[in-house]
Amino acid sequence: MKKIIEAEFIIVTPMFIGDANQEAHDVRPPSLKGALRFWWRALNWGRMLTAEGGDTAKALSALHNREAKLFGLAVSDKTGGQGVFLLTLKQAVEAKDQGFQKMSGEQLYLLGQGLGSFKHGNHTTRSELTSGTFSASLLFRPDTKDEDRHSVAEALFAFGLLGGLGSRVRHGMGSVSLTGWQGSEFSVPQTAAEYGKAIKGLLTHLPETLPPFTAFSGQSRIDISAENDNPLTLLTTVGSELQMYRSFGQNGKVAGKPAERNFTSDHDLVQSAINGKRINRAPVRSVFGLPHNYFFSSTKDKADINYAPDGTDARRASPLLLHIHRFPDGKCLAVHTLLPATFLPEGAQIRVKSKQVSFTPDWEVLHTFLNRFKTKETLHG
Question: How far is the C-alpha of 266 from the C-alpha of 284, rounded, in Å?
Fold first, then answer.
């Protein structure tokens, strides 16, 4: 394998990536390196667990040490240091101040609070990279082993097939697609069939047990949920299905359509908590990620469902990732990756208003959502 790996990417959906002032200017190496670490951990958990004979604690330690070796670690008390490669970027990207304007309500639903607003017309509240390309060059140290180069290359390849950068990346924002590759045995998929084959080739050594963090396992699922020539149309399609599936609605309607009210029990549960009644569980929709917010239009009451370790609000990122992938011919896919894992630390509770309750995720809630897409193709799971 060559000492240099070069990959080219195109920005497919608006990317909310920013500097210290939350202003979008460009893609920065630390952001890409962070994404590579994520995909590397997701791909390598099963391998470490197998190598350590199924011992979770030993596998976590081995994973941490290998990641530090490959990607580097902050130097402290004679530990850490540089990784096995130097990452440089070249880019031609376009940044706009609130460039994602006049979006559909379904797209706004995916953006969520903090990034989207419906006041004065649906729009974003931050600048973003609206389009463009960037290339990443990984220069490996001369003494880097072939297996280490392959391991990093694999993470970069997975990023180009399933990943993205910036805020709401798990909701399809900031999706990128691989358009060029040099330096290893991987190649750029040109069709949906080649894409599916490439995805399946990445998924090896998958444990059947639930991972202790977001990673691939035998319980994971990857679906091509929809396809279209316009990536923003795919955001609308997925946003519509998500909104209809999850929302209780107002006056029996959701986005002008009859409300399905699939989670009436969640609505009633949170309303009881607001009224001071005793509750003994969290909403089942918490499996989509935390915080999980409620607003009751009839009473104007609000409730935030939070993971609150040590009394401080925290996040539990969604185990369901949306990626919009674009091929050279312009065809685009909406790809969902479901990565079930230990949802919260053992003994952790969820706060519903001021009440602390336990939570056991029901993964079927997410599988039922994925099954809504009539033309879906399941690549794994």
Answer: 7
Can you name the residues that pair with 222 across neighbouring β-strands? 337, 380
Domain ranges of the chain: 4-188, 223-380
What are the distances in angstroms from CA 191 to CA 65, 188, 194, 326, 332?
A: 37, 9, 5, 10, 10
SS3 189: coil
Residue keyed to tokens 């031609």: 92
Sign of CA dihedral 123, 127, 132, 136: negative
Q: Rounded to an integer, what distance in angstroms lies between the CA atom of residue 326 and that of residue 314?
A: 33
- Which pair of structure tokens corresponds to residue 229? 């020539």
Q: How many Å apart are CA 358 and CA 22, to the nearest integer?
A: 35
User: What DSSP assignment string belongs to 206-268?
Assistant: --SSPPSSS---TT-EEEEEEEES-HHHHHHHHHHHHHHHH---BTTEETTEE---TTHHHHH
Per-residue model confidence as pLDDT tens for the chain (381 residues):
558 999 999 999 999 887 656 677 889 999 999 999 999 999 999 999 999 999 999 999 999 999 999 999 864 544 446 899 999 999 999 887 766 667 777 888 887 756 665 565 555 667 788 889 999 999 999 999 999 999 999 999 999 999 999 989 999 999 999 999 999 889 999 999 999 999 999 998 899 999 999 999 999 999 999 999 999 999 999 999 999 999 999 889 999 999 999 999 999 999 999 988 999 999 999 999 998 888 887 788 888 888 877 767 778 999 999 999 999 999 999 999 999 999 998 888 898 888 889 899 999 999 999 999 999 999 999
CB 102 within 8 A of CB 14: no
Q: How far is CA 7 from the centre of its chain?
A: 21
Strand partners, 135: 8, 90
Q: What pTM value is reported for the model?
A: 0.93
Closest listed residue to residue 8, CA positions, set 27, 23, 34: 27
Cα 347 from Cα 306, distance rounded (Å): 15
